[in-house]
Amino acid sequence: MDEREQKIQKLKEYFEKREDAVMAFLFGSQAEDRAHASSDWDIAVYIASKDKRVEWEEHAKEYPQEQKIWSDCVDILKTDHVDIVILNRAPVNIADAAISGVPLAVKDRGLFLQFMLIVTKAAEEYYEFSKDYYDIFMRSASLIKKDADRLRNIVEFIEAQRTLYPSFLVLSQKEYENNLIMRGAVERWLENLMNGVIDIAKIVLASKRVPNPYGYANTVERAMDILALPKETIAQYEKWVKLRNELAHEYLDIKWRKLTDFINVSEPHIQSLIAATRDFLNKEETE
User: Fold this and answer.
1) What number is the average pLDDT over the span 146-153?
2) Residues 6+ apart with CB under 8 A from 185
3) Phi–psi pair at 83, nearest 5 degrees
4) How far apart are CA 119 and CA 71, in angstroms?
5) How far apart, in whole angstroms, are the C-alpha atoms of residue 263 and residue 13?
6) 3-state secondary structure of 24
């Protein structure tokens, strides 16, 4: 066993002993055995959540264990060229790359599979999002007609989807769980609305020449800040944008709880976004 393999073995022993580390991975050049003397050790760690739910892109959340994990890894590896990525908080493209690396510990196989399914699908979508974002960014010194028309079409689409609120406000948990057609309809409706929200955020930010943000939640947060929406509205959208990727991987009772929250709470926030986007369009087109 060479020196690198010995260090990896020590990392495995360390993370197996840490009760708060549900899973950990080595990724990047050290994982692929193509490192040079000054290469960083990139280590991704998923921290156990108190409520046992799957956490991903929790970009505003602090994990106090992070500094201790870093210093312990520095001691183990005998170098301060160590980067710790908290998987609960990482953008999906980084999380997707990290879990494809060398497993150092996977203590909850079910949680790993659920996390993997969520971030892999979200990362695939995000790569397409990033390509479209780059295209808008490169062609825009401001909001050009092509993107203004697209933004207007998205607003009209969201307006059409908003007419479905009365149908879903009367939906019961029993019907949701037993009627596959209705269940699929309400889940697609939420996904359609949130895809529209993401598209609005993408066009608003890219047309303002803001460099591509990290992840959907950050994209929505920064775009809605430009649209001057209140912080409570921004926080709700960050939660709902993530929900569209979680629906396929949650138990029915958990999905129902999250969906009913969306159905009962979201309409005023949707109206605020529509109004703010129209104001943005009017302002950009008169400048």
Assistant:
1) 92
2) none
3) -115, 125
4) 28
5) 46
6) strand
H helical segments located in the chain: 3-17, 65-77, 92-98, 109-139, 145-162, 165-169, 173-178, 180-207, 215-226, 231-246, 252-265, 267-286
Rg (CA), the chain: 21
Report the distance separating Cα 178 and Cα 98, nearest Å. 38
The pLDDT tens digits for 167-188 are 999 999 999 999 999 999 999 9
Lowest pLDDT segment from 90-94, 140-144, 196-200: 140-144
Q: What is the pTM of this model?
A: 0.71
**Angle, in degrees to the nearest 10, between helices 215-226 and 267-286:** 60
Residue 36 carries which DSSP code?
-
Please report the domains of the chain, with CATH numbers, ordered by start residue: 3-115 (3.30.460), 140-286 (1.20.120.580)
* Angle (CA) 43 217 184, round 5°: 110
CA pair distance 100, 92, nearest whole angstrom? 12
Query: How much of the chain exceeds pLDDT 70, in percent?
Result: 98
